[in-house]
Structures are given as C-alpha cells and as structure tokens.
Protein 1
Amino acid sequence: MASNEDSHQVSARESSKAALKTPKASVHTPTQNNSAFPVVYLVYVRRCLPVQGTRDYHPDQMAVREQVFDVIKSCFKRHGAVTIDTPVFELKETLLGKYGEDSKLIYDLADQGGEQLSLRYDLTVPFARYVAMNKLKNIKRYHIARVYRRDNPAMTKGRYREFYQCDFDIAGDYDPLLPDAECVKIMTEILTDLPLGDFVVKINHRRLLDGIFAACGVPHEKFRPVCSAVDKLDKLEWKDVRKEMVDVKGLDGTAADRIGHYVQRRGSRELVEELLQDDCLTSQPAAKQGLEEMRELLKYCEVFGVLDKVVFDISLARGLDYYTGIIYEALLTGSPEEMSAVKTGETIGVGSVVGGGRYDELVGMFDPNNKPVPCVGFSVGIERIFSVVETKYQSQVGRFLQFDHKLVRLVSLPVVI
C-alpha cells in the first residue's frame, strides 16, 4: 500500500497536469486531507512554464541537438554553400501573398511608429528579398535560424510556434534540373547520416499539377485552392479531399473525379513514360513540360545514386504559392515500433522532415524591374527530426549513437511534462 506521502505527491502531480488544461488554477480551501501545498505548487508551475508551442532544452538535449546541427552544416558545406543571416522580422508586405492559405499563421507585431512588421514565417522569402536587394546573380547558401507560426502546436510531433529551420538554396542560372537533383542528393545525404531509419523522398512538379487541373476542367482561378486541397492527401482519404474540393472550393464533381484519377498515382520512370502517352494530358503545355522535366530529374537522380530513395508522387502539391517547378518532401518510413515513444507506446507521426522546391519568380517580386532569378531549395524540419531522435533513443542512456560516422555517447534526456 502506498504511503500518505507518495499519495500526496501523485495527487499533486496529477493536479498540476490538469491545471495546464484550464485557463485558471482552481483555489482550494485547506483541510486536514487537502493542504495548501498543491495550490501553491500549481501556481508556481504555471508561472514557470514556457509559452505554449515553445520549449526549453536541457544540456543533455542540447548535446544531441548540436550533433544534429553539425551533421546538417557539414553536408551543406561539403556542397559549397556559404551562410547568411537576415532579421527575425520583416515588413508585413514582404511576407503577404507568398504562403497561400497559411498566410493566416503569420505573427504580426504591434505598430511601432508606422511600420507594419511581422515575424518571419520561413527563411525562403527573406532569402529572395536578400538576393534581390543585393542584386546577386548566383549564390549557394544555407541559413539556420528560428521562424514563427501561429499554428496549433503538437509538440510530440515536432510542431511548434517557434522553431528552427535549416535551409539550403541555389540561386542563379545553371544547367536545367541539375540544382534540383543536387538538392535531392543533399537531402538523402543528411537523412542517411542522421540516426533516423528508412526514408523516402517524394517528388512532383507544379507545372504538371497545373496541367492536370486544366485537362480536368478546373477554372484557372481555382488552381491554387484545388492545389491546397490535393496537398492534404497525405493526411486525408481521397473521399474527404474530394468533399473539400466540391463543398468548400466549389469545384464541379466531375472535374474532381478526373483529378482523382491522376493524383492518387505514384511510381517512378514508368509512370512518367505512361503519362507522356496520355494525349489528353500532354495536350496541355504545362503538363508536358512538367513530365519532361520529371524525366530529366530522375535521370540525374540515377547518376547521383539516389534513385532508389525517390518516388514520383502526383499527390504531392506543397501548399505555398511561390513554387513554380519541381517540388519534393522527405518522409520517414520506419516501422511503428521504431517510431514509438519508449514509455507510452504513442506513435510519433511527424509528417515530412524535409520539404522544398523550385521558385523561379519569387526574387523578381522584390526587384524594381521584376527581374527573375531562378532558385531552388529545401528546408530541413529540425524540430521534427529532433523529436524522433529524442523519442527513439530516450531509453538508450549510456549507449553510443552514430552521427555522420561519429560515435556520440547519449546521456539522459529529461522528459518534459
């Protein structure tokens, strides 16, 4: 039978967890069996917690975190990238109109003397502004910094309101599709060097999607809303996505069914060749261009030795408005046992851990003469990766982990309530 002291500690701990779910801590009148200690403890805990959607990192956690950063930086530098930095906030007009439906997640700052400012949502738009402002013709850069989003946090899945992104981008004129293929190569190198298990890189083409929408009878003004719906196919079944297209986006049901014929398919070179024989699809110049570039990209992936990690997935859409060509995402494909918390058995569904694509028109939006600079790049979701690393090895205290062929001793990782 548990002692009174143990029961009291359990009660206090359970009460503190319950208080975190309510707006105010309740006040109890001390009695013989209910001392004032839990109330004081609750108030103390609430005042010491970080803001929802953010977290503190203990020294042991930072040791692993820095190793992950080092692996990523080393890979970026091996491929000749230099680093830059930009302000944590931008003019609001710089960020608006770049993120589609996600623009509502931008953090706006209070008016400080007439300037409308917002915290940066990602590192790509500030980079495009940087390239245009400095009139750069080509640069290969990486940038590791915090970004901010007014999202609904899911911290066990690595989704925060304040988090780091690790970006790699190539700006300038190069041989067609070569920078895109190099980005895929770098992504696979990083995910191979980190102790994350199996993964797959999904690729698609925005021009192909536009061509599919046109061939299926989607009005041009509905391209982006329909694209946003297609992007949810990694989380929802087709029937739910179709319902959103028809009931929310106002798309004709017949057009939605035609889209479903294409966007539920995935494969590799054989799928590209099959679609190139589809007369209805290739009658659309955008679709034909997208398929021909996809064929070329897969050839480069074979040369770089990463074709076995790549899947051509037509459902991949990437919701951001600035993408114009190849798009890609990397997802972990480990078994549920490998991706489960040690104590609770909760499956960690982190979604994509890397995402990006080509955005040839973004720099021109910031140039006085609207001069475009071709760009392609990706962002590593470091918080999601760290959530997997932290969870996966939480019970392996004292063991050695392999980071980029280096052995690192894992010390204790405190569990944050």
Protein 2
Amino acid sequence: MVILYIRAVLYMLQCKCLCLGSVAAYLQPWYAALESMRYLLPDDETRDKVTGQSWQVKLLRLSERTLEQLDVDQTKYADELTAQEEDFAGKINSVAMSLTNAQAHVDVAKVDVVAAEVAAVDKQLRAVQREALQLNTRQALLGQPLTDYSHIKMLIDMFDPFIQFWTAAASWKANYTTWMHGPLEALDGEAVEKEVTAAYKVLNKIGKVFASRNLGRMTANAENVRNQVEEFKTLVPLVQALRNPGMRARHWDQLSSELGQDLHPDKAYTLDKAVKQGLMNHLDKLTRVTDVASKEHSIEQALDKLQREWEGAELNVLAYRDTGTYIIKLEESMSQQLVDHIVMLQSMGFSPYRKPFEERLAKWDTTLNLVSEVLEQWIALQRTWMYLEPIFSSEDITQQLPLEGKRFATVDRTWRKTIDAAKRNPGVLKVNKLPAE
C-alpha cells in the first residue's frame, strides 16, 4: 500500500509538471513580445522565468528516475521477502516438530528437564509469532496479499496448557523443597499461602483442559501434583503461626511451657522439623498464642511509629523582625498530631494486650503530656513577650517605668537564652530540657 501511494504521488507530480508546461507555453508569446520590443526584464523576474522553464524538465526527470528506482527496489525487496518466507516456512516446521516432541513428555520425575524444554519451545513459538507479524507488515508495504499465519496462534493455544503445567510443576517442586527443608526464618506466611493457592488453581484448571482433550497421562499428572499441593495446604496455618512477625521470646517461652518441649526456632529450624515435632497436633495452642502476639505486635508497631515521628519532629524557629532573637511557629498539624497521639496512648493503656509495653506506654504518655504543657505555656509567654518587647524597647518608656523595665529586661534575657537554645537544638522532645536561666 505504501509503494502504491508513492507511485500515485509521483504520477500526480508528473501531471502537475504537464500543467506547469502548459502555463510556460502560455506565457512564452508574452515574453517573446517583450523581447521584440527590446524590453529588459528585472533580474528577479528573469530568474523566475528561467526557473519556471527549467523546473518542469527537472521534476519530470526526477519523477521518472524515482519510478525506475522504485521498480528496481520493489523487485529486489520482493525477491528478498520470498526467500524469507521460504526460510520462515522451514522455521515453522522445525518449531512444530519441537512442540510435538515436548508434548510427548509425561514423566513427572523429569520435571526440571521437561520444564526447561517446554520453556525453550515456548520462546521459539513467540519468536515465530513476532516474525510472522513482521513478514505480514513487509507484504503490506509491497502491496502483496498477506500470508495467513493464524495456525501459529493455534499452535500457541494448543501448547499453552503444557507450558502452564510443567512450569507450575517445576515451581512446586522447588518451592516444596525450600519450604520444607530450607530455613523457616526465610519463609513469609502470606507469600507461601498465595503461592499455594495460585498453584492449586492452575493445576486444577489445566487438569480439566487435559481431561477435555482425552490426555489421560497428563490429566493424571496434573491431578497428582494438585493433590500434593492440596496436602501441603494443611501446613500453611502452621507456617503462618510460626512465622508470625509478632512472635517474641516470651511467646516462645510460653509455647515451650504449654507443649512440654523446647520451641525456640533458630536459623537451622525447618518446617520439616516442626512437622516431625508434632506441632500440627497443637495448632490450636499455636494459633491462640500467635493471635495474642499479633495484637501485641500492633501496639508495638504503633509505639515504634510514634517514636520515629516524635524523635524526628522539630520546632519551627523563625527570626523575629529586627530583635536579634527568634520565635517559634507551632504548626497546626503538629498540634493535632500531639493531641491524637496522647489520645491513642490513653486508648492503648486500656488494651488487654498492653502488659509487655506498660512501661513504654507510661513513658510516652508522660513525655507527650509534658511536651503539650510546655508548648502551651511557651506560646502563651511568647504572645506576651511579642506584645511587650516593642514597648520596652523604647527608651522613653523605660525612663517612665524603670521598675517594670528592669523586670522585663530580666525576662527578656531568659527568653532570648531559651529561644537561642531551641534554635540550636530544635527537637520537639527536648523542649522540656532547655535551660531555664
């Protein structure tokens, strides 16, 4: 289509050139008449005349040469495309043969080898699909009819269940080994549950596809691996209990006492060892303790977050006019956060799961209430100081009120010393430790 468009443009150009020739022929008698009268055209009009007469010939020659080159290039590219299509037909046959061989595998004991083979075949299929699209694109450019490569998509669809099965089976084998015999501390309970659920769904779906195609051996393979996954599902709650992020030494001590055996998982502890210890028979006790650990962990996380926020919080200390000192600007967000956290600490203080954190809760409740009180008094004092400072900065006022002036000067020195210390060390938690004099 593109080449046809180029040809149409060139033919239109030739038509325009013929029209240009007609215009030049029409003007020629007029130019001849001017010459017979010995009229000399201005330089710019002379250039226009010569250009108009020569461009018709130039454009015609250019379009003819372009059409000739286009014919040569089209023939060349068509021959190259024919060779590529013949080579591509051989690729399709080769991939189809590989696909047939890969589909013949039924021995699950060789899952790793077969999974690698089907992955390679799938890669070849995808490459062939992309090449088919490229060939169709080139055929369209040359104005040739498009070759039907839809059978490649059919091959991909037909092979897809085999790819899914062998990939899932290989992944399951690797995961099972890691989960059962690898370090328990490396497992994530939620991730294991997601992997198990996904594997079960895939194997269940693929088993139905194989059954609909009457592929008995593959149907049995899918069912066998699916049953293994289903059997492991019963261990997922145990993994989640043992890998609960809230579990601390006190919880392991409690479990060890209740179970009558040492249960303090170390780096070498595995899920296989947990099963052999018979922990599945005590899953209810594990779940009860880990539920408590989760709730305690929520309090611990809230306290950690609170601590991070307040340890990084700073006062906004700003220069105040030309007084040579500063004032603090208390952001509304900080005030609200202070109130929210005090309320949160009070709420956690009534939680039945507060016991491990009672000392920490009390410490933060005291600290934040003290900060709130200090900031409240500070802002009140600052408001008064800002009102009196310009008054007692006047010599006339200090002469008229010498006693009051001396009192303000004493307060002013303390204020400046305190606010200077706050400027150097603006941490909010340090406001109750600033020098008082």
